[in-house]
């Protein structure tokens, strides 16, 4: 998790900086945020796919390719992180406009509160958007038959026919409950680390 998060936030920050071309803008720029986040998500999918395959107890009992479900993980991470960082950047920007004032101590508390809310909402948006892809990925990776379909849309179509939209969002409640605090903590940690290292988060 530490490696994955470092990679995700590092690639996102560096790509965003490159796309901005040294021009700093306080206002979020979707033409910079979305490709930076999608690229970062795409790269970490190559780390996540084999690790998630091994993590699942059923999968460990089979001989499967390390990247079975790789295209689904790639889609989930690219789309999900584009959504996550867009929500994070916009919530952060508009909350700073409304709330940032007063002493530096107060500003630190405000920054932390903004980090908690923007990170938590970003995490909720991520999983609300891509949970069906995660459901499909789990089915693909745990299928006992190697000849089972690996196309996530084909898998989701089967789930939808059998269980409707609810089936595509299996586990949404616990996922959202976990997503808010986990992503809030990740964002606050990232922002504090950047402050301590003297890196401007723009």
TrEMBL record:
This is Mitochondrial arginine transporter BAC1. Its main location: mitochondrion. InterPro entries: MCP_dom_sf, MCP_transmembrane, Mitochondrial_Carrier. GO terms for cellular component: mitochondrial membrane. GO terms for biological process: mitochondrial L-ornithine transmembrane transport. Solcar repeats lie at residues 110-196. Keywords: Membrane, Mitochondrion, Repeat, Transmembrane, Transmembrane helix, Transport. It is a multi-pass membrane protein. One of its GO terms (molecular function) is L-ornithine transmembrane transporter activity. It comes from the Eukaryota. It holds the Pfam family Mito_carr. Belongs to the mitochondrial carrier (TC 2.A.29) family. It comes from Gossypium raimondii. It is found in: Mitochondrion membrane.
């Amino acid at each position: 998790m530490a490696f994955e998060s470092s990679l995700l936030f590092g690639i996102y920050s560096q790509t965003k900086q490159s796309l901005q071309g040294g021009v700093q803008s306080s206002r979020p720029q979707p033409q910079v945020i979305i490709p930076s986040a999608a690229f970062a998500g795409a790269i970490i999918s190559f780390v996540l796919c084999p690790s998630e395959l091994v993590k699942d107890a059923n999968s460990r009992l089979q001989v499967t390719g390390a990247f079975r479900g790789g295209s689904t993980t790639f889609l989930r991470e690219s789309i999900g992180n584009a959504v996550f960082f867009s929500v994070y950047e916009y919530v952060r920007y508009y909350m700073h406009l409304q709330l940032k004032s007063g002493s530096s101590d107060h500003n630190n508390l405000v920054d932390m509160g903004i980090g908690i809310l923007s990170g938590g909402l970003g995490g909720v948006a991520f999983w609300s958007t891509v949970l069906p892809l995660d459901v499909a990925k789990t089915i693909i990776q745990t299928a006992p038959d190697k000849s089972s379909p690996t196309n996530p849309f084909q898998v989701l179509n089967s789930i939808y026919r059998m269980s409707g939209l609810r089936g595509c969002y299996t586990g949404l409640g616990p996922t959202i409950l976990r997503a808010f605090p986990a992503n809030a903590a990740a964002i606050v940690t990232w922002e504090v680390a950047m402050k301590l290292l003297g890196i401007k988060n723009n």
